[in-house]
């Protein structure tokens, strides 16, 4: 009997359905990444305190050795993916922070990475206690790999108590297929990770949520014996962006709404991305630190788009080169997908634990008006409001930020924005609403002295 | 291959939507009533619409030059001036002299839109500002209604040179007379059935009235097109027609011999063009769904109030302008609550 599968009864409000472009890489099996000569391990790859380097220039480091850590509660250590020598501890390009301290490691012998095999279907979680699982996750430096990068150790803590664990296999962003490939190739590992996380967090139920544009992934879990024997439920969701957002996913799967400014544990829910689940399984069973991840290198301009199992710290330029370089002119290089990803200017920027994709967009895909940044006046059509999954007045907030009226922005709940980008996506006047809102949040944080000027 | 890469905030792709496309859709929607107008008023329809559109576009161009906008032509590309011109032409009598149409257009764009800062900044619907100006300045011309060319076979093909055409009272004028004479006991009383009996002509458009608002069928098709294309949301049309329906039904039930039937009121005058094309102007209507419903309900109710209790036979223009003025207030009242409820701490 296949696992219990249901179609979601609920639907989060708003959202959009951009063209998927997943065909470029969805049938490409995960393959080993480039043999890197040098990696740059950023010391901030997560939400929380920036790590301190614990190695010095000239030190020899082994695979999986900690190179940076922090004593702060919200943080996660970073490790070396290769065996080599520390070249320097310096500032490097960071996709979000601009510049950030990093440990640069030179490989002794550059060697390609083999893709680890999946687990056997008869995985037994009885060997591990909750505490052991938590410790292994903390040591491995696992963070949410879907993009947010919240330290997983804190998430799976048994306090506050949680009822339901949702495994997030939505991957609603266009272009990205790394989670999709993982669901097909590492099905057992993901299920094992889910069971371990469930045990550690004390959840009673596990639900795997996948969008209906990935029927093969749904089938892979449905026919998995482990899923069936452990009573894991499957929920098929109607494809819609930003369904992979934790608040939207909970809404779509359970019909519950996480309070504004609240976190899912407040309503007894824990959401974990499939890649994170797989990393948890590897960390607990093999004691492997989070030093590699699957990255989709994609875009029409890329010669051979691929899903690569790459060392964290590999530069974007190297990954693009490894995929045959470009066949046509690229207009934007984005770390992540086109809806929430960060455009970068420096191709030496290294990938982090949260980088799911390198997307090279052509001018045609960006669109002429957006490429030239031609913003026209707001015609108050209200499309941004209609598509906002958080029911915010995007145009009001963005215009308040534009005119430096931060009190108005606060008054219209700027902090409740999840920065999904739906408003900017639909805006006929091509106003960078999400961009203004992000700027506004930074301005507010500076005002409140949370970050320095 | 990666020499000219740009860094901007996410998202990096956008829906195939632009202001020009939104406005273009409205123009396509307006082509249905235009076709009906051309059928009933022949050349009047085309010359009047053409004159209004051209004068609106030229006025916007000149205003842009005056404002020393670096790309003066750019704001013409959004096509909003074309819509203003079309709606203005559709809401004036077919035989309006072209010089008056030019004056109305210039006023609509220059005073109705550009002095506020152009598209997106205007408080009032520019076309209605132009029409209000014409009504105030040339009352006689604005109430001289030409008979549709299809109505009288003996009438020569109406051409632009033949401005002395047959005129008649509009259906709304009959209904107004019925209201006004409702208390007269002897023969001076105008029966409301005169108005109610015109229902079929109202649907087809074979009646006196403003150029583009006569044919209910064409307006409904145009409105349906906009709704299907999701250029407009359902809130405003439904609210306008709904509140007008409720209002007129109550009047009809109270005194069916003095007040025209609800169906008459929904199809007569500017009700349909107002509900689908004028009140739905995004710039001058509220942003949120609730706000749009309040706005639409207000437009419908004020229109009906003027029709039944006011001095004028028709009230769509004043209703729209009045509700435009309270749009900021409505927006303020209809503040959205985030999906997760109000945050505990700001």
Characterize the structure shown.
The complex is a heterodimer of chains A (453) and B (346). Chain A contains 16 helices and 18 strands. Chain A is an alpha/beta fold and 453 residues long. In chain A, a hairpin with an 8-residue loop joins strand 6 and strand 7. The longest helix of chain A is centred in the middle third of the chain and has 15 residues. Chain A is globular. Chain B is mostly helical. Chain B has 2 domains: 125 residues, no CATH class; 137 residues, no CATH class. Helices cover 55% and strands 0% of the residues of chain B. Chain B is globular, with a radius of gyration of 22 Å. Classes of the chains: A alpha/beta (453), B mainly alpha (346). At the A-B interface, strand 16, strand 17, strand 18, helix 11 and helix 12 of A face helix 1 of B.
Overall SS class of chain B: mainly alpha
The gross shape of chain B turns out to be globular
The number of distinct structural domains of chain A comes to: 2
> Which CATH first-tier class of the largest domain in chain A would you pick?
Alpha Beta
What's the short story on this structure?
By secondary structure, chain A is of the alpha/beta class. Helix content of chain A is 28%, strand content 20%.
Task: Give structural attributes.
heterodimer, A: 453 residues, alpha/beta, Rossmann fold, six-stranded mixed β-sheet, five-stranded parallel β-sheet, 16 helices, 18 strands, globular, B: 346 residues, mainly alpha, 14 helices, 55% helix
Secondary structure blueprint with pairings:
The complex is a heterodimer of chains A (453) and B (346).
Chain A (H helix, E strand, L loop, with lengths): L4 E3 L23 E2 L5 E5 L9 E2 L6 E2 L4 E4 L8 E2 L4 E11 L3 E10 L22 H11 L11 H4 L8 E6 L8 H8 L1 H15 L3 E7 L3 H8 L2 H5 L3 E5 L8 H9 L14 E5 H13 L5 E7 L7 E6 L4 H7 L9 E4 L6 E3 L12 E5 L1 H4 L1 H4 L11 H5 L6 H9 L3 H6 L10 H5 L6 H15 L6
Parallel strand pairs in A: 1-12, 2-15, 10-11, 10-13, 11-12, 14-18
Antiparallel strand pairs in A: 3-9, 4-6, 5-8, 6-7, 8-9, 14-15, 16-17, 16-18
Chain B lengths: L18 H23 L1 H24 L13 H11 L7 H13 L15 H12 L33 H10 L12 H4 L2 H6 L11 H13 L6 H20 L7 H6 L3 H8 L10 H21 L6 H18 L13
Helix pairs in contact in B: 1-2, 1-3, 1-9, 2-3, 2-4, 3-4, 3-5, 4-5, 5-14, 9-12, 10-12, 10-13, 13-14
